[in-house]
Amino acid sequence: MFDRRRFVAIAALVAFTGSAAAGEWPEKPVRIIYPYAAGSTGDATARLIARRLSDAFGQPFIIENRVGANGVIGTDAVARSAPDGYTFLWAVTPQIAISPVMTKVPYDSSDFAPITAVSTNRFALLVNAKVPVKTVPEFIEYVRAQPKGFTYAEGGAGSISHLAMVLFLGRAGLKGTNVSYKGNQPALTDVVAGHLPAMFALFGDALTQAENGAIRLLALSSEQRSAQAPDVPTIAESGFPGFKTMSWWGLMAPARTPKVIVDRIAAEVSKTAKDPKIVEQLTAFGVDPVGSSPAEFAAMVRADIELWAQAVKLAGLQAK
Prior knowledge:
Layout: H1 4-21, E1 30-34, H2 41-57, E2 61-65, H3 72-79, E3 87-92, H4 93-102, E4 112-128, H5 136-144, E5 151-154, H6 160-172, E6 177-180, H7 184-192, E7 198-202, H8 203-211, E8 215-220, E9 246-254, H9 259-272, H10 276-284, E10 288-289, H11 294-314
């Protein structure tokens, strides 16, 4: 049976290898598909990196927002693209490491070549300012004391804000009931308003509300504290060694994209991630610049697939 997708991929690879090796790439604009709408911190970070790649390679790197099906449509579009160095994915943890475990999607991680993790994003365990707890141990006692059970907000069933709480409650021997929202921001808004007491939220999103006194940050899901909130401990140092739930933004290419292109982009992003001006901008977004090698990013993806598969199972959300 004729496999058109495989034929196109092989033909593009064969035709393109010579020019790539000769250093002629890119000869036309390059698109980076971001599988969500414009306006988020992730979108802003993608555009920041795209501008630097445009300057470095002398061709426009254009962010294309391809929305739908919680990021699956844009991600699949890249998986189906020719591996010719002109289509890349602004990869987000859920589409690569979570969605394939939860539901049937038209791609899997082998359809992509990891290029570089651009940044990592920590999450904050937080409570409404009126909840009478200030530490993780006090939070655990608060959860246990709820006569009708503990209910928390999260940004969508299977989101990292949901699964991070599932993992934490599991480690603490606790149970809770999730209330799903269409995104992290609506969930955070209801915690700020006091409609629900707690959640895990992206640190960058939560920081402003914490500074305004609307919420209280109890602990961070990262291995280390944040320079933006040095007094907030990590969950790992609050009685749960090894606890870490992070997300990442990175660049991926369709599988079989020439290695010379992958390596050139990875090297440029690594250089960009060390630029003090870029570091300052990313830190302002509440994220940590990385700029990893393709091999390092691949190892990060493998570890996350294992972690989130465990969380999805605990949440009872795995695909049937």
